[in-house]
Design a protein that fits this description.
- It is a single chain.
- The chain is an alpha+beta fold and 237 residues long.
- The chain has one domain: outer membrane lipoprotein receptor (LolB), chain A (Clam), CATH 2.50.20.
- Helix content is 18%, strand content 40%.
- A ten-stranded antiparallel sheet has the order 3-2-1-10-9-8-7-6-5-4, covered by helices on one side.
- Strand 4 and strand 5 form a beta hairpin.
- The longest helix is centred in the first third of the chain and has 24 residues.
- The N and C termini lie far apart (84 Å).
Length: 237
């Protein structure tokens, strides 16, 4: 009995000790976001082949192949033979949002299992309420410093949900696939293909009940990372 009691006390002590270390090791929201930002900053520039499929109510859009170019901090270009619906959010905007921790207040607002990962949810409230960004939420895998999902609410584009899927370039924080769920009424569509999306409550026949959300899926392959892209490469031809 004495031996059992001693082992039990020892086991309790070890459990409490590990719990304490876990609490001490818990990252703050700012530390977690800093880890994400530092991973992003490994990439000075990149180009990548992209396949873009958009499902926007009231608009017929065919799949498009494109090449995306990016250079820190905010150079961004899409080249395609056809018209590509390409949200800038989720690419250059994320690093701009989280780089200055004095420009927002970050708080933990929960946890969620995404795939096989436990994501910490960090919500960012801008310090100044006159800008375009109203609220940003990030679902972050603390073990890899990867954003698994983000939700950006802006005055100009409404609420946009972005899901990220990683593969060969996860070490650089670059996804193989992104799924955007957008607010159709506020999402900016090229005028040449836009129809009456200002009233997304009706379908093409005028019937009520049409979806107010659109989905854009972007699959990427053949990244070329830190190849030395120049600013001139981003000028319109």
């Amino acid at each position: 009995m004495k031996i059992f009691f001693s082992v039990s006390r020892y086991g309790i002590f070890v459990t409490l000790l590990l719990t304490c270390f876990s609490v001490v090791a818990q990252k703050t929201p700012n530390q977690l976001l800093r880890g994400v930002y530092m991973k992003m900053m490994q990439v000075k520039d990149y180009s990548v082949e992209a396949s873009i499929r958009a499902d926007i109510p009231l608009i017929k859009i065919f799949p498009v192949n494109a090449v995306i170019y990016f250079k820190q901090p905010d150079k961004f270009k899409v080249e395609s033979k056809n018209i590509a619906i390409m949200p800038r959010q989720g690419f250059s905007d994320l690093s701009k949002i989280i780089h200055d921790s004095t420009s927002y207040t970050a708080v933990f607002t929960g946890k969620e299992i995404i795939g096989k990962s436990l994501a910490q949810i960090a919500s960012l409230i801008p310090a100044v309420d006159t800008g375009d960004l109203v609220l940003a939420k990030f679902w972050i895998d603390a073990s890899t410093n990867l954003i698994l999902k983000s939700q950006l609410t802006t005055r100009s584009s409404g609420t946009m949900l972005i899901e990220y899927f990683y593969g060969a370039e996860s070490a650089f924080g670059l996804p193989d696939k992104m799924i955007f769920t957008v607010d159709v009424k506020k999402f900016k569509v090229p005028k040449i293909i836009a129809t009456d999306i200002q009233n997304p409550g009706k379908d093409a026949k005028g019937n009520a009940g049409a979806s107010k959300k659109g989905v854009i899926l972007i699959s990427m392959k053949n990244y070329k990372i830190n190849s030395g892209l120049k600013d001139v490469d981003f000028k319109k031809k």
